[in-house]
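User: I'm preparing a small set of examples for a lab meeting where we compare how different chains pack in three dimensions. I only have the primary sequence for this one, and I'd like the structure in token form so I can line it up with the others. Please keep the answer compact; I'll paste it straight into my notes.
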Amino acid sequence: MPASFRETFVIFALIGVFVFASISFIVKTQTDNSVTRTILEDGIINRTYVDLESNLNSTREQVQTQKDSFESENPERGFGSLIIFSIVGVGKTFAGMTLGVYNIFIVLPSEVLGIPRIVVGVFTAILVVSLILLVWRVYRSGA
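Assistant: Understood. Below is the structure token output for the 143-residue chain.
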């Protein structure tokens, strides 16, 4: 039975949060127990984890800023006007979440397993083309 977009998005978000929480749990446990060689000393994991954490922190700050500006402004109603700033803020947040999930599911395993960048690039291109074709199919069917 096909899943709706909302169900698929929630599943991917939960998987991403679970993976991020697992890595965070390992790091915190190693830090609290004074382990001599932590997982963050590995260059690949350290770079990916720190980049992902900083990306999530900056996304959280941007979301808070957008929320504050959205709540503080009273938009003027005009004929055919849109609140563009809200749409852009939501788009940036969604793009940040998508990039985070991409980093967790594709970049981190490829770096750990040592998969060449060209293979990851081809896989990503196939994935993007497939998603575009699926979106076109949903649009054409009118659902």
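A couple of notes for your slides: The mean pLDDT is 76. Residues 5-115 form one domain.

User: Perfect, thanks.
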